[in-house]
UniProtKB/TrEMBL annotation:
Catalytic reaction annotation: 5-(methylsulfanyl)-alpha-D-ribose 1-phosphate = 5-(methylsulfanyl)-D-ribulose 1-phosphate
Site (Transition state stabilizer): 158
Lineage: Archaea, Methanobacteriati, Methanobacteriota, Methanomada group, Methanococci
Organism of origin: Methanococcus aeolicus (strain ATCC BAA-1280 / DSM 17508 / OCM 812 / Nankai-3)
Keyword terms: Amino-acid biosynthesis, Initiation factor, Isomerase, Methionine biosynthesis, Protein biosynthesis
SUPFAM superfamilies xref list: NagB/RpiA/CoA transferase-like
Its EC number(s): 5.3.1.23
Family membership noted in the UniProt record: Belongs to the EIF-2B alpha/beta/delta subunits family. MtnA subfamily.
Active site: 238 (proton donor)
A GO molecular-function annotation: translation initiation factor activity
Name of the protein in question: Putative methylthioribose-1-phosphate isomerase
Domain of life: Archaea
Length: 337
C-alpha cells in the first residue's frame, strides 16, 4: 500500500499540493497552493497542520513567493532587487504569523530566508527540508520502535503521524515501525477535542495501513490506565525547550500526569528541528483558537448564549513527567542521572 504523503510539490506546474485535512476522514481531497498567500491560508485554516508539516509547507510558501517574484522581475514591471527582497520579506512575515506555537514553522522560514540572502534557490532549500523530514521521521521510527514490546497497547494524542509530517510521522512513526517489524501492537487514539485530530486523522491513517486502532473520548484515558490497559504513551511535540519542557496539543500535560500516577512510560517523538534552545517557558505563545471550535459541534451550538470558553490549542509538560524523547539521532532520557 502506498504511504500517505500530505505534501507534494508539483514540479511541472510549480505549485504545492496538500491533502486537505479538513475533509478527512470522509473524503481524500487536495488543496492547491499557487501563491504564498494560499499557503498562509492553508496553515491558518488547518488544511495542513502538525509541526513538521507546517514547517515544510511554509518553506514551499517561500518558494512560491520567490517564483512569483521572478515572474514579476521577468515581466514588463521589472522589480528592482530591493523590491524583490521586500516581497520575500513580506512573505516571510506573513507566513510567520500563521500559527505561533510550533517552532518548526519559524525554523523552516528562517532557513529559507537565509538561503535567499545567500543567493541560493528557495525552492531547492524547501525541497531539501522536505526530503530531510521524510528521512528524519523514518529514523525516529527505526530508533523508537525498540521501546515497543510485542503485544503493547500504545496510547497517542492528537495526530503526530504521516499527516503531521512529510511521511511516517513522529510518534506514529515509532508505532508504524513496530508494526512493520511484526510486533503485534494496538493503538488507542484520544479523539482530541475540539478539532478531533485523533478521531479524524490518527484513526484514518492507522486504519489506512491496517494498524489496529480504537478511538476514545479524551476523558477515558485515565480509566484505561487504571485498568492496566495502556502499556505506553507516545505523543508528538510542537516545541521542546532546552530543559526538555515539551509543548504539544492541549491535553498532553493531563496525560503525562496520569501516566506518572499509573506508572505508564510516557514518550515524546520529535525531530531536532522541534528543539528551541533560545526561549524559555514564559516566552512561548500558546495559541488560543476561535471559541466556535468549542461552542459548536457540526455547526450546532452546544452552549448557552453568553457563556465563554477557554480554547488553548497547546499545553506544556515538564521534563520530570517524560520518560524519553525519541529523536532521529537517539533517545534522550531527561531524568536519567
Ligand atoms: C508530529 S506533530 C506533533 C504535533 O504537531 C501534534 O501532536 C500536534 O499537536 C498538532 O497540533 P495541530 O493543532 O493539529 O497542528
Amino acid at each position: 500500500m502506498k504511504d500517505l504523503r500530505p505534501i507534494i510539490w508539483d514540479n511541472e506546474k510549480n505549485q504545492l499540493i496538500l491533502i486537505d485535512q479538513r475533509k478527512l476522514p470522509n473524503s481524500l481531497e487536495y488543496f492547491v497552493c499557487k501563491t504564498y498567500e494560499d499557503v498562509a491560508f492553508a496553515i491558518k485554516d488547518m488544511v495542513v497542520r502538525g509541526a513538521p508539516a507546517i514547517g515544510v509547507s511554509a518553506a514551499y510558501g517561500m518558494a512560491l513567493a520567490e517564483l512569483n517574484n521572478n515572474n514579476i522581475a521577468c515581466g514588463s514591471k521589472r522589480a528592482t532587487k530591493t523590491k524583490g527582497f521586500r516581497l520575500i520579506e513580506k512573505a516571510h512575515n506573513e507566513l510567520k504569523n500563521t500559527r505561533p506555537t510550533a517552532v518548526n514553522l519559524f525554523w523552516a522560514l528562517d532557513r529559507c530566508m537565509e538561503a535567499y540572502k545567500n543567493n541560493k534557490s528557495i525552492l531547492n532549500e524547501a525541497k531539501e527540508i522536505h526530503n530531510e523530514d521524510i528521512e528524519i521521521c523514518k529514523k525516529i521510527g527505526q530508533i523508537g520502535e525498540k521501546i515497543i514490546n510485542d503485544g503493547d497497547t500504545i496510547l497517542t494524542h492528537c495526530n503526530a503521524g504521516a499527516l503531521a509530517t512529510s511521511a511516517y510521522g513522529t510518534a506514529l512513526s515509532v508505532i508504524r515501525f513496530a508494526h512493520y517489524n511484526n510486533k503485534k501492537i494496538s493503538v488507542i487514539a484520544d479523539e482530541t477535542r475540539p478539532r478531533l485530530q485523533g478521531a479524524n486523522l490518527t484513526a484514518y491513517e492507522l486504519n489506512y495501513e491496517n494498524i489496529p486502532v480504537k478511538v476514545i473520548t479524551d476523558n477515558t484515558a485515565g480509566f484505561l490506565m487504571k485498568m492496566g490497559k495502556i502499556d505506553k504513551i507516545i505523543v508528538g511535540a510542537d516545541r521542546i525547550l532546552k530543559d526538555y519542557t515539551v509543548f504539544n496539543k492541549i491535553g498532553t500535560y493531563s496525560l503525562a500526569v496520569l501516566a506518572k500516577y499509573h506508572n505508564v512510560p510516557f514518550y515524546v517523538g520529535a525531530p531536532y528541528s522541534t528543539f528551541d534552545y533560545e526561549n524559555s517557558i514564559e516566552d512561548i505563545i500558546i495559541e488560543e483558537r476561535d471559541e466556535k471550535e468549542v461552542k459548536y459541534i457540526n455547526n450546532i451550538n452546544i452552549m448557552p448564549e453568553g457563556v465563554s470558553v477557554y480554547n488553548y490549542a497547546f499545553d506544556s509538560t515538564p521534563a520530570e513527567l517524560i520518560t524519553g524523547i525519541i529523536t532521529e539521532k537517539e533517545i534522550i532520557y531527561p531524568n536519567k542521572k
